[in-house]
Amino acid sequence: MRVAARSALDTAARSTKPPRYKCGISKACPEKHFAFKMASGAANVVGPKICLEDNVLMSGVKNNVGRGINVALANGKTGEVLDTKYFDMWGGDVAPFIEFLKAIQDGTIVLMGTYDDGATKLNDEARRLIADLGSTSITNLGFRDNWVFCGGKGIKTKSPFEQHIKNNKDTNKYEGWPEVVEMEGCIPQKQD
Question: pLDDT digits over 119-174, tens only?
């Protein structure tokens, strides 16, 4: 009798624990969707983090993030990681970033997050290529703004997955930088 009671208590205790969803997002994604969660960098101290389908693609812990715009590419049908890179938009050159953006294949999921400064070296061509991936905020991205974006090559509409906080000395959380922006959601799987 005591064993049965204990097991009933154990079951009750387990059921009060909230379920864990992929990438730690707040709800399960429907079938034929990929779970994602991402955060911009914090000032020039903590790098951005990009997770897709419970796989951390980019983070400070993985040591594959850097100042500027951090980009992860994934196959829109399978969710398989294709590439991760970062482009220094403060001290670097925008040309390699433009070439990278032009080479993205149709049907590719594109996840981007800023760290420190993602805008200084951006030119109109780079901004247009990112807008073509579904971004609406890229045209207004400024010095040390925080921004996260998830879009896709060949997208026909504007992406609903975008967060942007302007660098404003009166409202910044960190001296010289706004607070971190975070975003999560479910990306529809590309259908044939």
Answer: 999 999 999 999 999 999 999 999 888 899 999 999 888 988 998 877 777 776 76
Whole-Å CA distances, 1 to 5, 7, 8, 9: 6, 10, 11, 13
Please state whether 32 falls in left (phi above 0), alpha (psi between -120 and 50) or beta.
left
State the chain's maximal CA–CA distance in angstroms.
Answer: 74
pTM: 0.86
Q: What share of the chain is helix, strand, coil (3-state, %, to 5)?
A: 20, 30, 50
Return the residue matching tokens 């921004």.
147
Residues 70/38/51/108 CA torsion (nearest 10 deg): -60
Strand order across the 55-58 sheet? 55-58, 49-52, 33-39, 182-188
